[in-house]
């Protein structure tokens, strides 16, 4: 008996290995205070025992090991997500204005043994701080249904043990991070219901451990990467974005693919009919065409198949085989004709089939006449051809307009620098490497568009001199609220003239050697350049004073205000500065023609490559240009829009002149006359190809 009593005393006085450290108890109480006392943590208020001993619930769970917190799960009651978020506290939907996410995360980092952290629907707001990486033991991080915004901090990539990252239902509004392949153990990545933009980076496809990828309900666009490299991917959820490519090859082990409410086009790949593990496939509300693979319906594990609201056409074979596990099929709102296959028309209670709004030869459910589907398909093809023509016209037209501006400036510079040369010299037409058999009419139409600069001069604003007082009033004294930016060409302000016209005003400080006479001659020449696609110079003000303390003469150039950005903005989808070898010219500066040709070559190169050029350097683009030599290389690097809308002959002409412009040896670069002639010739070749294609389609 005495031995048993002694043993009992020893057991009672041995400290529990899970007894929480006092410091960590204080951390939990501090977190409760910072979270403004959520009801799920009310149990901590009067609890005097060990927090590690608390019973877990659906809304709160604390687990410990070796006297430290290893798991913390808290679920709040702020479930409603507002449609617009300004980046500040929202009454009843977020924590108060006094909440500091930076201080909150600092407190969290005092729990260094945390392996599981789940803070859901607590109203946490603000940009997620980089210091989250200090929780280096984290294996699961779930911060969903809060009010965090901005970019996902790169420091998260340092959480090398992380296998689950869930940031659903926040307001992250930058791009999907390109550093995601830094995770070597990540299996679940869920960024649903945010405002993420841009393309899905290829780096996602390098996370070999990934099993679940959810990016639905964002603003993602562009082409999908090749997911076939994710050999362990089971769930892919990309619903409700703006993705507009063809469907790529999918991993063979895929179980669920949710791709509805995007803008996917083209045919459903035959490879989809070989996904033996696939159970759920939703391709509804896209622009998919053609006839779906028969094998889709007979996949051994398929139970849910939704192809509704596309432009799928043709007839499904009557002998179509359906999987025994198939429970739901929706092919409604397409352009199917013929009879419904027997395996879909049976009245079995095991499968629900929706097939309305087609042109099927069946009485039940609403069907259109066969002519409706045929006409709709025909209209779709015509619309696609029109879109192609528009894209080609925009690309070539933009290139020609940009070149026209450079040529005009070059001609004016030459005229200005050679005062004794009074005669107007027309650019010489160079007709090198013209393919045999080209008609004289085509060559005539490919002449330099020397009269293009006269387009749009009717009704153009009259160039005038402005007083400094006028410009000061237009910009509210050059107030900082009117400041648009600053670059190598001086400061830029937005202004409003007395008549209500919005203008852009550029303030330049000039070198002393630039005489007023030379400057006025140059400005007079520039003022005569008018075109509907060029920003017009409306006037100038010389030697204004009081705007700043910089030395030298000052000139203010007054332009039309163009709010929609420049050509590069439309290429990349960003307001990005990209400098190459050429230098921007100033009103009194002599330009280097070879550098101008080189710079314009880059404009052509970026036009050919498209959005992939965004953020890339000069060396990258020059290296990629070597791929133009082969058809496979072109398919890899040339923008799909350009590749699918330009004829091979026209594209080859543009590629050839682009390479010449970017020659490393300045003396080997073509003249602007050569460049312009080649581009005009390429446009004529393309126009002929489009006309032939239209003729073939109507015959």
TrEMBL record:
It comes from the Eukaryota. This is Protein kinase domain-containing protein. PANTHER family: PROTEIN KINASE DOMAIN-CONTAINING PROTEIN, UNNAMED PRODUCT. Coiled coil: none annotated. InterPro entries: Leu-rich_rpt, Leu-rich_rpt_typical-subtyp, LRR_R13L4/SHOC2-like, Prot_kinase_dom, Protein_kinase_ATP_BS, Ser-Thr/Tyr_kinase_cat_dom. It is a single-pass type I membrane protein. The lineage of its organism: Eukaryota, Viridiplantae, Streptophyta, Embryophyta, Tracheophyta. Belongs to the RLP family. Residues 1-19 form the signal peptide. Residues 478-699 form the Protein kinase domain. One of its GO terms (molecular function) is ATP binding. Keywords: ATP-binding, Cell membrane, Glycoprotein, Membrane, Nucleotide-binding, Receptor, Repeat, Signal, Transmembrane, Transmembrane helix. ATP binds at residue 513. It is found in: Cell membrane. One of its GO terms (cellular component) is plasma membrane. Its main location: membrane. The chain crosses the membrane at residues 388-413.
């Amino acid at each position: 008996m005495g031995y048993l009593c002694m043993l009992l005393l020893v057991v009672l006085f041995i400290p529990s290995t899970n007894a929480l450290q006092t410091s960590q108890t204080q951390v939990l109480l501090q977190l409760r205070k910072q979270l403004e006392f959520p009801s799920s943590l009310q149990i901590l208020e009067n609890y005097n025992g060990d927090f590690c001993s608390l019973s877990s619930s659906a809304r709160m769970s604390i687990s410990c090991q070796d006297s430290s917190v290893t798991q913390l799960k808290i679920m709040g009651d702020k479930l409603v997500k507002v449609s617009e978020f300004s980046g500040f506290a929202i009454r009843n939907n977020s924590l108060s204005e006094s909440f500091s996410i930076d201080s909150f995360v600092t407190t969290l980092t005092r729990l260094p043994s945390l392996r599981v952290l789940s803070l859901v629907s607590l109203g946490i707001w603000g940009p997620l701080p980089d210091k989250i990486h200090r929780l280096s033991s984290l294996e699961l991080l779930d911060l969903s249904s809060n009010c965090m915004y901005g970019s996902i901090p790169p420091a998260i990539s340092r959480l090398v043990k992380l296998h689950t990252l869930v940031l659903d239902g926040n307001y992250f509004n930058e791009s999907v991070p390109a550093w995601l392949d830094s995770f070597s153990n990540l299996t679940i990545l869920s960024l649903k219901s945010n405002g993420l933009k841009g393309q899905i980076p290829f780096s996602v496809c390098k996370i070999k451990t990934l099993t679940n990828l959810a990016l639905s309900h964002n603003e993602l666009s562009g082409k999908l990467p090749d997911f076939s490299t994710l050999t362990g991917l089971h769930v892919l959820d990309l619903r409700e974005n703006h993705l507009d490519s063809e469907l790529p090859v999918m991993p063979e082990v895929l179980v669920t693919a949710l791709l509805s409410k995007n803008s996917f086009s083209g045919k459903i790949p035959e490879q989809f009919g070989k996904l033996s593990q696939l159970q759920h496939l939703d391709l509804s509300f896209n622009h998919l065409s053609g006839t779906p693979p028969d094998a889709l319906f007979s996949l051994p594990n398929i139970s849910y198949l939704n192809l509704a609201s596309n432009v799928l056409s043709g007839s499904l074979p009557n002998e179509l085989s359906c999987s025994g596990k198939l429970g739901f099929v929706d092919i409604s709102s397409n352009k199917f004709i013929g009879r419904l296959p027997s395996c879909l028309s049976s009245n079995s209670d095991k499968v629900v089939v929706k097939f309305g709004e087609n042109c099927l030869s069946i009485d039940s459910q609403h069907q259109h006449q066969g002519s409706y589907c045929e006409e709709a398909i025909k209209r779709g093809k015509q619309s696609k051809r029109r879109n192609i023509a528009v894209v080609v016209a925009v690309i070539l037209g933009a290139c020609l307009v940009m070149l026209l501006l450079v040529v005009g400036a070059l001609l004016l510079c030459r005229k200005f620098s050679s005062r004794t040369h009074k005669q107007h010299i027309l650019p010489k037409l160079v007709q090198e490497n013209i393919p045999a058999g080209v008609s004289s009419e085509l060559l005539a139409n490919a002449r330099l568009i020397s009269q293009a600069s006269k387009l749009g001069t009717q009704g153009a604003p009259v160039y005038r001199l402005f007083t400094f007082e006028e410009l000061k009033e237009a910009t509210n004294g050059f107030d900082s609220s009117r400041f648009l930016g600053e670059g190598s060409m001086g400061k830029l302000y937005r202004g409003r003239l007395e008549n209500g016209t919005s203008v852009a005003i550029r303030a330049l400080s000039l070198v002393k050697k630039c005489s007023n006479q030379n400057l006025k001659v140059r400005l007079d020449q520039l003022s005569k350049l008018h075109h509907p696609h060029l920003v017009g110079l409306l006037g100038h003000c010389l030697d204004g004073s009081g705007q700043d303390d910089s030395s030298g003469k000052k000139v203010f150039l007054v332009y039309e205000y163009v709010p929609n950005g420049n050509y590069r903005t439309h290429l990349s989808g960003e307001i990005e500065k990209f400098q190459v070898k050429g230098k921007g010219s100033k009103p009194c500066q002599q330009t280097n023609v070879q550098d101008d040709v080189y710079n314009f070559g880059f404009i052509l190169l970026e036009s050919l490559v498209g959005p992939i050029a965004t953020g890339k350097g000069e060396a990258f683009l020059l290296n990629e240009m070597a791929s133009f030599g082969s058809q496979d290389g072109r398919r890899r690097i040339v923008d799909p829009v350009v590749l699918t809308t330009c004829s091979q002959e026209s594209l080859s002409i543009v590629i050839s002149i682009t390479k010449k412009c970017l020659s490393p040896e300045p003396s080997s670069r073509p003249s602007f006359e050569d460049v312009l002639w080649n581009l005009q010739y390429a446009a004529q070749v393309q126009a002929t190809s489009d006309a032939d294609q239209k003729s073939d389609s109507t015959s």
